[in-house]
Design brief:
The complex is a heterodimer of chains A (314) and B (288).
Chain A lengths: L3 H10 L23 H24 L4 H25 L18 H28 L5 H27 L4 H4 L5 H19 L5 H22 L7 H4 L1 H14 L1 H8 L3 H27 L14 H6 L3
Helix pairs in contact in A: 2-3, 2-5, 2-7, 2-12, 3-4, 4-5, 5-7, 7-8, 7-12, 8-10, 8-11, 10-11, 10-12, 11-12
Chain B lengths: L3 E6 L8 H10 L25 E9 L12 E9 L7 H5 L5 E3 L5 E3 L9 H5 L6 E2 L6 E2 L5 H5 L5 H5 L5 E5 H17 L5 E4 L11 E6 L18 H26 L31
Parallel strand pairs in B: 1-10
Antiparallel strand pairs in B: 1-8, 2-3, 4-5, 6-7, 9-10
Classes of the chains: A mainly alpha (314), B alpha+beta (288).
């Protein structure tokens, strides 16, 4: 149902009928209906997936067992939190199980639902076994370690697939970056997992190296976005969504990179966490702004389409 | 069962909106507000969760020989829009519950008893047709009157159309009729009449196609709609690259950076500026 304010906005941005203005400048695409739970899930699920990867790598390399335990906690708790976030965003939350009614390899959301199910199972099994190992003499270590490896394998998908989820859509700013988003989100997820572990008190040099690498990658992606002249990328550089994207990018890339080089590890970790969350919010909001932009779907010459351009970032 | 389609000929449309009304009545679609848009006689503005047929009023400066009541004042064209029922449907491919299916008539149908309102179809429709109804929670769009077709009736909009602008029937026969019609219009001097059916795009053609005058862009019909499934390959390739980098990077980091001294872990991090690891014991610099 069109609200009065939305109608007012449409009226304000209406343009006379001309081939370069579409149909009175009306948006061609529908705006994403997702609310804050979805980008929050991108953040939580991504961090959980990457934490499982970091934990398994530490486990395989024979690193400190406390680090492995804490990584399992982040993975398990994140997986547990992911479900409710996704269910809350459904129009019919009570039907969430319909997600597991079919498996469709061509639907990134179907692949994601099954991946989250598998990841949640393995991550919570690994966590449970670890707690059992600490408290009892039950021989659960092998089961726990095997589950942790499986949670890391699915965690790799958890940390990256959300890039395909929004990239393989009709929304111009998302589809334009379908090859960048999975790696961008992966780096962001790795940075948050490492940061959580550091804030939990771990100071292994390996975590710092991973944090540096992720921050360097995020700096590079920020540069790529900043220098991208494509019309579809406008919401990442203009208007309110442009500001949010830049704030997220600053806290994910250059700031933690500098802080790590200056050896302020905890500050870098806090900055990365904040940046990762803002970055996911910014991408979803940029998608909403992008859906109102006629120029890409109608292949318009942007210089004349004054109506739609004014709507960017509102 | 034969594949059926809609052929909407805008040169025959008189803008009466009988199709919109018939659709609402038959399908029991709720109202979507009684407000004046100020844009010609179009107060519905776009297809949506509660508008499955939408008559566009394309009103622009006078151009000789192109429709309109008073040629010296303006030109007026109408076209009834509807879900395109794509050959390669983005919504259908993306639907994670299997709620959206291809029917025996070739149409794309949302099963309301399955849909859980995830909203993924909304962002994967290249025509901006399907939408989630806020007070219901599920996604809705034109059903191609699946229930009517099941019992051999034509869709409500086509039945109600008083001028034959909305034609319903066998898809192949409709395409032939459209070719015939466009030849007839061109022979009559309407050189700007075109058929909109994006067969060469990745959508692969639509089961509801249109005949419009002028540039289809003025009807918000995209020249090259992309079905998002074509983006899966580059997307999953990037996932493979990102996942491999993360796995190898994490293993290398822990393998090469060595184990910290047992005392180092689980202790509070050194204050800013202090040495942080065994590797850099002399890293003490002046604090901030």
């Amino acid at each position: 149902m069109i609200t009065e304010s939305r109608l007012e906005e449409l009226r304000r941005n209406a343009v006379p009928i001309k081939p370069d203005g579409g149909y009175y400048g009306m948006p061609l695409l529908k705006e994403p209906v997702w609310t804050w739970e979805v980008p929050a899930y991108f953040f939580v699920g991504g961090a959980a997936g990457a934490a499982a990867v970091v934990g398994a790598a530490a486990q395989v390399a024979g690193a400190d067992r406390d680090l492995v335990s804490d990584a399992r906690w982040i993975a398990g708790a994140g997986a547990l939190l992911s479900g409710p976030l996704l269910v809350a965003d459904l129009g019919r939350p009570e039907r969430f199980l319909n997600m597991l009614r079919v498996f469709k390899v061509k639907s990134p959301m179907s692949v994601g639902a099954w991946t989250l199910t598998a990841f949640g199972t393995f991550a919570s099994a690994a966590l449970f076994a670890d707690e059992m190992r600490k408290r009892t003499r039950l021989p659960v270590e092998l089961i726990g370690d095997a589950s942790a490896i499986l949670s890391a394998a699915t965690g790799l998908v958890m940390a990256t697939y959300t890039g395909v989820l929004i990239g393989a859509t009709a929304i111009p700013v998302w589809s334009q970056h379908v090859s960048l988003l999975p790696i961008h989100f992966g780096a962001s997820a790795l940075a948050s997992a490492v940061s959580m572990l550091e804030l939990a008190g771990h100071n292994e040099q390996a975590l710092n190296v991973l944090g540096l690498a992720a921050a360097a990658l995020e700096t590079y992606f920020g540069y790529r976005i900043e220098t991208d002249r494509a019309e579809a990328s406008d919401p990442l550089r203009r208007g309110a969504t442009g500001i949010t994207t830049r704030i997220g990018g600053f806290f994910s890339g250059p700031l933690p990179l500098l802080l790590r080089m200056a050896r302020f590890r905890k500050a870098a970790a806090a900055s990365s966490l904040l940046g990762s969350l803002i970055t996911r919010m910014a991408w979803v909001e940029a998608g909403k702004a992008s859906s109102r932009d006629l120029r890409v779907p109608l292949a318009l010459d942007g210089r004349h389409a004054s109506g739609p351009r004014d709507q960017i970032g509102e | 069962m034969a594949v059926t389609g809609f052929f909407t000929d805008s040169t025959l449309c008189i803008g009466c909106k009988a199709c919109e009304v018939a659709c609402k009545e038959w399908n029991d679609v709720p109202d979507d507000g009684f407000r004046w848009s100020g844009l010609s006689y179009d107060n519905t503005l776009a297809l949506g969760h509660s508008t499955w047929r939408h008559v566009k009023f394309v009103e622009h400066d006078a151009s000789i020989g192109s429709g309109g009541n008073a040629p010296d004042l303006m030109t007026w064209q109408f076209s009834s829009d509807v879900c395109k029922h794509c050959e390669n449907a983005g919504c259908l491919e993306a639907c994670p519950t299997g709620s959206i299916v291809r029917t025996e008539f070739g149409s794309v149908y949302v099963q309301p008893d399955i849909c859980n309102g995830c909203g993924y179809c909304v962002v994967t429709c290249p025509f901006g047709v399907i939408d989630r109804r806020p007070d219901d929670g599920r996604a809705f769009k034109c059903t191609f009157c699946y229930d009517r077709q099941k019992v051999g009736l034509e869709p409500a909009c086509a039945k109600a159309c008083p001028t034959g602008s909305i034609l319903f029937g066998d898809l192949d026969a409709l395409e032939k009729a459209a070719d015939h019609r466009i030849a007839q219009l061109h022979a009559a001097g309407m050189a700007d009449a075109t058929i909109y059916n994006p067969k060469s795009s990745s959508v692969g053609g639509t089961h509801a196609f249109f005949l419009v005058r002028g540039d289809p862009k003025t009807y918000n019909l995209p020249p090259d709609p992309v079905v998002p499934t074509t983006l899966l390959k580059p997307g999953w390739n990037a996932v493979a690259v990102g996942a491999a980098a993360m796995a190898i990077g994490s293993l290398l980091a822990f393998a090469l950076c060595g184990r910290p001294s047992p005392a180092a872990s689980r202790h509070p991090l050194p204050q800013a500026g202090e040495g942080l690891s065994r590797e850099r014991p002399k890293g003490r610099v002046r604090g901030a």
